[in-house]
Amino acid sequence: MSGDRTGGRRRSPADGAQRRSDPDEDRAQTVLDFVVGMSVFLAVVAFTFAFVPSLLEPYTAGEGATVIVAERGAAQLAESSLASAESSAVLSPACTLAFFDGTSPERAESEWECGWEANADALHTELGIAKFRGANVTITQNGTVGTIGPADVPMRAGDELPRSRSVAAASRIVDIGGEPYRLTLRVW
Fold this sequence. Notes:
The protein has helices at 13-20, 31-56, 63-81, 93-101, 105-112, 123-127; strands spanning 90-91, 135-141, 144-145, 147-148, 153-154, 156-158, 168-176, 179-187. By secondary structure, it is α+β, with helices and mostly antiparallel strands. It has two domains: 13-59, no CATH class; 63-187, Ribosomal protein S3 C-terminal domain (2-Layer Sandwich), CATH 3.30.1140. Strands 1, 2, 3, 6, 7 and 8 form a six-stranded mixed beta sheet that branches. The model has no long low-confidence stretch (mean pLDDT 84).
């Protein structure tokens, strides 16, 4: 019994109870420990999912840039590309028809002195909009898409409008052949 740490006496159940309540001894995980640990873990995971996208946001184009692109494009169409020699916001009926019906820029320049470099089929090229952006131009009268020319060419071009993305729109009131229209450029 020389190796016995109890000093040769037997332990009583009271000694065991004393021993279990000793705070310096190892103990198993309690429910409270588990709840606190899981709460901290879930809070860190939630914070990570909420915060990391905002870290990457400065590297993506913001909504402000989209609004600027839409305003610049609408101004270019109304004041330069489709404008007649008379004044800005008065669109040339011949140039507008040629733009929307797919006439080549070279023919439009030689026959009607149109100032655009690409027709409605290449709207991104004409407006200098990056290919990753969507763009749509529509000229309406009283809320409906306008038509022009003897073939009633609809004055609409570009991509289909998305249903799930934010779209920036810029409008100009224009005159085509003495009639008021609304030119609207949407960019997303």
